[in-house]
Structures are given as structure tokens and as C-alpha cells.
Amino acid sequence: MNFFNNIKREFGTANMLNKLIYINVFSFLFLNIFSVIFSLFLIDINSIKEHLMLPSNTEEVIKQPWSLVTYMFIHDNFIHLIFNLIWLHFGGKLFLQYLNQKQLLYTYILGGLSGGILFIIAFNYLPALIPFSENAKALGASASVLAIFFAIATHIPNYQVNIPFIGYVKLKHIALIYITLDFLNIPSGNAGGHIAHLGGAIFGFFYIKKFIHRSVKNEKNQFYSYLKNIFNFQKSNIKKNYKMKEIDIILEKISKSGYNSLTKTEKELLFKSSKK
After folding, report:
1. Over the stretch 219-257, which tens digit does the pLDDT of each residue have?
2. What's the rounded Cα separation, in Å, for the pair 44 and 172?
3. What homologous superfamily is domain 2-220 in, according to CATH?
4. Distance (Å, rounded) from C-alpha 238 to C-alpha 137?
């Protein structure tokens, strides 16, 4: 019981990035451990796994709508899992240095959904992929991971990463190379996976451009408006105090020399102040 309590406590205190990593690892272990156990009883667990994958056939998607979310937490094999988790950890750590945990979760889930939806659209409308739409299924966190990576690469494009044997490379260049390779590899195999990657990357880019940067811009505009109001208020007070001093001087002059001693300008100023 202590072991499970420790896991529960560790998960509860973890940040959002680690929670996403834990869920992916737990899903992989759960399916593979039970696959071994079920195989001893001649039960095929692949039928369960297939219900968690995202089908490209729209009729099947309607029958298992949960697969739009579950597909982004299951992996085909250990290498597939590790590769995605390395990218998730790298991109997620950078993401949390500049943005918050809630935004990380939104980007992961919505990026995965965007990748899944583009995957479904591609297999139902692109002539080269339509013949494979009956059997094509998507799985893996790649679309979600790329959404996070492209989001932070869009947010801090000139941030430099030191890559061994290469040197410092800007995030925007890594993102550009990655998405170019994904696009060029669509015809060479795993077309559905590469298309889902594109969907996640596109979401990450627009999420930052349309929501985060716009929000920051609005905050800046509000700040500038605030400063402007303060400046105008101070300016107004200065003018008001200056006019009051002028009026005091005019009134003192009247008390000493009479109203007729005032100049035309002084009379007009006194008249205007009496109307307010």
C-alpha cells in the first residue's frame, strides 16, 4: 500500500509536465503488462488497444469518440514512447519557463486533437489516402508534443539550444527542419503519423500567435492607456494649479488697486474662471 500511496502522492505534487509524462508511462506499462497476463489466458489485448487508438474512419470515430483523447496517451512500442517523452520533457521544460502549467495542458490536449482531426480529414478527403481509411489508426503523443514544441519555438524563436557536435541552433530553425522533414516523409510511409504531426505543429504556432501574443499585446495596450491616463491627470492638475495661482494674483491685484487696474487678458481669465 505504501508503494501506491507514494505514487499517488508523487503524482499529486508533480507539475503538469511530469503528470503528462507519468500518464504516458503508466498507460504504456498498463497495456503491456496486461498484454502478457492476458496472453497466458489466450485473450488478445490488442482489441482493447485498438479501441483506444484513433480510427480514420468517421463512422468508427462516432462509435468511439473517446479515442480522440486516448490515442495521444498510448504508444506502439518502447522506442516510440521514449522518443516522444524526450521531446515532451525538452519542449515542456522550456514552455514552463515562459508560460504556465494550464497553458501547457491546453496545448497538449488541443494540439493532440488538432493532429487527430487533421489525420481524419486527410484519410477521408485526400485521394491518395482514401483507399487506406478503413484500416488506418493513429496513436502516440507526437502531435501533442509537437504542439508544445512549436508553441514555445513560436514564443521564443531566437532561443538557442546547444546541440552536441553541431553547436548552438535557434529553436525556430529546429522547428523548421522538423516540420520540413515531416512533410517530405508523408509519401514514404506512416503518412497518418506525419499528417498528425503537422496538425499539432500548426495548432502550437497559432495558439501562441492568436491567443498568447494577442493577450500580451492587449495587456501592453492597457498598461499604456493606464500610463496615458496618469499623465493626462497629472497634466490636468498642473494646468489647474497654474490657473489657480494666476487667479490668486489677479484677486490680490484687485484688492490693492481695484478692478480697473486689470489688463484685458486678466479680465477675460477672471471672467472664464467665474463661469466654471
Report:
1. 455 545 644 554 454 445 545 555 667 777 766 766 666
2. 44
3. Rhomboid-like (1.20.1540.10)
4. 71
Domain ranges of the chain: 2-220, 230-275
| Confidence (pLDDT) at 107 | 96
**Three-state SS for 51?**
coil
Q: Exposed, middle or buried: residue 57 (CB in 10 Å: 0-12, 13-18, 19+)? A: middle
Q: For residue 243, give Cα distances in angstroms to 4, 246, 249.
A: 77, 5, 10
β-partners of residue 138 are: 54
Q: Are 64 and 136 in contact (CB under 8 A)?
A: no
Q: Which of 81, 144, 151 is nearest to 110 (CA)?
A: 144
pTM: 0.76
User: To the nearest 5 percent, what fractions of the chain are helix, strand and coil?
Assistant: 80, 5, 15
- Alpha carbon distance 145, 140 (integer Å): 9
Instruction: State the burial class of residue 55 (Cβ atoms within 10 Å of its Cβ: 0-12, 13-18, 19+).
Output: buried
Give the Cα separation of 168 and 110 in Å (integer). 31
Find cell 498484454 and name the residue: 35
C-alpha torsion 149→154→156→162, nearest 10: 50
Using alpha carbons only, give the angle 193, 196, 201 rounded to the nearest 5 degrees.
125
Buried b (16+ CB within 10 A) or exposed e, 166-190: eeeeebeebbeebbeebeeebeeee
247 vs 67: CA distance, rounded Å: 78
162 bridge partner residues? 168
Q: Which three cell numbers stand for residue 178?
A: 522538423
